[in-house]
Design brief:
Number of domains: 1
CATH topology: Rossmann fold
Protein name: tRNA 5-carboxymethoxyuridine methyltransferase
CATH architecture: 3-Layer(aba) Sandwich
EC number: 2.1.1.-
Structural class: alpha/beta
Strand content: 15-25%
Function: Catalyzes the methylation of 5-carboxymethoxyuridine (cmo5U) to form 5-methoxycarbonylmethoxyuridine (mcmo5U) at position 34 in tRNAs.
Catalytic activity: 5-carboxymethoxyuridine(34) in tRNA + S-adenosyl-L-methionine = 5-methoxycarbonylmethoxyuridine(34) in tRNA + S-adenosyl-L-homocysteine
Number of helices: 10
Organism: Vreelandella andesensis
Bound molecules: S-adenosylmethionine
Length: about 280
C-alpha cells in the first residue's frame, strides 16, 4: 500500500500516480489557506446539494486528501469512508477530524479511514456504494481512464458519482494569460509530478469525461465549472466585499455555457443505471 518511489526527484508510484506524501504543507498553504481554496469549498457547498440527491446515504470519498469533503458529508449525517494512499495526508485529515468530532461536529464512528489507493478499492471497500466522491484525484493518476472504470464498478445500481477533475482546457488558457505562449502552443501542459510541483500530471478534458463515462455505462447528469473567473482576474479581490461579489458571479455562471467550460475544475455528477429487473 506504500508508494514506490522510482527516484528522489521523480516521485511517482509504479502506476504513475502522484501520492501527496511530503506535500501536506505546500498543498494546504497554496490551496486551502488561500482565497482559491475558500472559493472552491464555497462553490462545493453551493453545488453539491443541487447536483446530488442526498439522503444521508453512506459515502466513499476516494483520494480524500486533507479530509474537507469527508467532513462536509459527516457534518450532514452521512457515514463516510475516506480512502487516501498518502499517509501524511491521511494523518492530517484524521487529526483535524478528531478535533472537529470532539467539538461535537459528528460522532466519531461516522468516519472510517482506509490507507489505500483507488486501484485497490474493489478489494478493500467493494461496496457497492450508493454515493462515491472523487475530487481532484484523476489528474494525479498515470491512468485516469482506468480509474473511471474502477469507480463505475464500485457504484451500486442507481448510485451517484461526484467527480471533480482539473480541466486541461483551462490550464491552456491560464498559461496563455500568464504569458507562457510557447508552452501553450506546443500543448505541453502537464506537470511531471517532480518535487513539490502542484501542476497535475494528467489534466483532463470535458471530451474525455464524456467518453470515459459512456465507456463505463455511466450517465452524465450534470456538470459545472469551479473557479470559472477567479484564476483569470488581473486584479484579485483585495477586500471582503469584492471577494463576495466574485463568489456571487461564480455562482451565477458556473453552470452556464460557455463559462463552465473554462472552470479550473469541472464538477460532474454521473449515475449508474438501475439494474434491469
Ligand atoms: C489534489 S489532492 C485532492 C484531495 C481532496 N480530494 C480534495 O479535493 O481536496 C489529490 C489527492 O489524490 C491522492 N492520490 C494520488 N494517487 C491516488 C490514488 N492512486 N488513489 C487515491 N488517491 C490518490 C493524493 O495523495 C492526494 O491526497
Amino acid at each position: 500500500m506504500h508508494p514506490t518511489n522510482t527516484s528522489k526527484s521523480y516521485e511517482l508510484t509504479q502506476a504513475g500516480d502522484r501520492y501527496f506524501d511530503g506535500l501536506v504543507d505546500k498543498f494546504s498553504r497554496s490551496l486551502y489557506q488561500a482565497p482559491r481554496g475558500e472559493l472552491r469549498l464555497a462553490m462545493l457547498d453551493y453545488l453539491l446539494p443541487q447536483m446530488l440527491h442526498l439522503t444521508g446515504q453512506p459515502v466513499l470519498d476516494v483520494g480524500g486528501g486533507l479530509g474537507q469533503l469527508s467532513a462536509w458529508f459527516a457534518e450532514r449525517g452521512h457515514s463516510v469512508t475516506m480512502a487516501e494512499p498518502s499517509e501524511d495526508m491521511l494523518a492530517h485529515a484524521r487529526a483535524w477530524h478528531t478535533e472537529r468530532s470532539a467539538a461535537g461536529a459528528w460522532p466519531p464512528e461516522q468516519l472510517r479511514y482506509l490507507a489505500a489507493p483507488l486501484q485497490s478499492l474493489l478489494q478493500h471497500a467493494p461496496g457497492p456504494w450508493p454515493l462515491i466522491t472523487c475530487h481532484a484525484v484523476l489528474e494525479w493518476l498515470g491512468e485516469p481512464a482506468r480509474a473511471v472504470q474502477t469507480l463505475a464498478s464500485l457504484l451500486a445500481p442507481g448510485g451517484q458519482l461526484s467527480l471533480m477533475v482539473f480541466n486541461r482546457d483551462a490550464l491552456r488558457f491560464s498559461n496563455v494569460i500568464k504569458g507562457n505562449l510557447q508552452k501553450a502552443l506546443s500543448d505541453q501542459l502537464e506537470g511531471k509530478g517532480k518535487r513539490q510541483r502542484l501542476t497535475p500530471i494528467s489534466p483532463v478534458t470535458h471530451d474525455e469525461m464524456c467518453q470515459w463515462g459512456a465507456a463505463n455505462g455511466l450517465t452524465m447528469k450534470d456538470v459545472a465549472g469551479i473557479r470559472i473567473f477567479q484564476d483569470y482576474l488581473r486584479h484579485p479581490p483585495a477586500q471582503e466585499n469584492e471577494q463576495a461579489t466574485l463568489l456571487a458571479l461564480e455562482k451565477q455562471y458556473c453552470r452556464q455555457d460557455p463559462h463552465w467550460r473554462l472552470g479550473r475544475y469541472l464538477l460532474y455528477t454521473f449515475t449508474k443505471p438501475e439494474a434491469d429487473v
